[in-house]
Amino acid sequence: MIAEDKVTEIFCIADDFCKEFEHEIAKNAVKPGPGARKRRRKRKMSDAEIITILICFHYNTFRNFKHYYQLCVCAHWRSLFPETFSYSRFVEVMPRCFVALAMFLNLACFGECTGITFADSTCIPVAHVRRERSLKVFRGLACKGKSSMGWYVGFKLHLACNERGEILNFVLTKANVDDREPQVIDTLTNKLFGKLYADKGYISQTLFGRLWDRGVHIVTTARSNMKPRIMPLRDRIMLRKRSVIESVNDMLENVAQIAHSRHRSVHNFIMNQLAAMAAHSFFQVKPHVNFDFDLDVCPQDGQLTIWQ
Question: What is the pTM of this model?
């Protein structure tokens, strides 16, 4: 179980952000007309408390959010959260914090681009492929797709991270969306620069030129039926370090609970995805690349040099 000191740390960061966020919202809000009734009654639990509870769920060994809320939050963390909702009320109020959680993830949890970025996608199944026709919660949203593990019904999460294992951006799409879709790539690489290392699923001459014009150089491995090409030693080494993004996906699936088939509403599914990625930013140990030596290109002769 997560220590109470870590819960307090997450709450302090979330509370400071929520206060600043509410101040900006109130400053830019439309003023009500004369005679309009103003409702300013506050809830017993603040947005920061709800965000903290959602994030801390991905630290624990609970596989069911109801058991986690009733047995952990309401029982063991009574001193941390003195005014708690009932479980049904908490589930009802939780989607109202979507905007605050999304902004908190974007502004306080995402890392910074360093010029070295890894991109990959992972599947998020929500039902067994044989139960596709009986799907109710995600009817019309989830689609059937195929990954390296076989067919599944659900969605696909496209991620971009730096060499320190920090998530830079994400795109959530249906399972049948290609990784090279222009809208997906444009959103995923919106604030990126430098080198982007990806797998064979991103091989496309059109995609290479599209990103090159935006200052992003995508580097991918070659397929078996492609002609061999000359690649700098730096890019070859960094392609071997592409396991960083796969380790991030593994932590989101196994340490956090970004993929399971117990969702009962679309809103709670989206909140679970955002909270899992926010929890990843607070993990003490993240997959990263250890640079024992630096690779650089000598500007005089353009040759690749290894600086010890």
Answer: 0.88
d(CA 101, CA 50): 9
Q: Name residues whose C-beta falls within 8 Å of residue 295's C-beta, 6 or more positions apart in sequence.
A: 233, 234, 237, 304, 305, 306, 307
Contact yes or no for 101/271 (Cβ under 8 A):
yes
**CA 204 – CA 215 distance, rounded (Å):** 17
Residue 303 has pLDDT above 60, yes or no: no
Return the ∠ at Cα 87 (arms to 84 and 90), rounded to 5°. Answer: 65
Burial class (CB in 10 A: 0-12, 13-18, 19+), 82: exposed
Tens-place pLDDT, residues 86-129? 999 999 999 999 999 999 999 999 999 999 999 999 999 998 88
* C-alpha to C-alpha distance for 116 and 245, rounded to whole angstroms: 12
CA distance linking residue 244 with residue 165, whole number of Å? 6
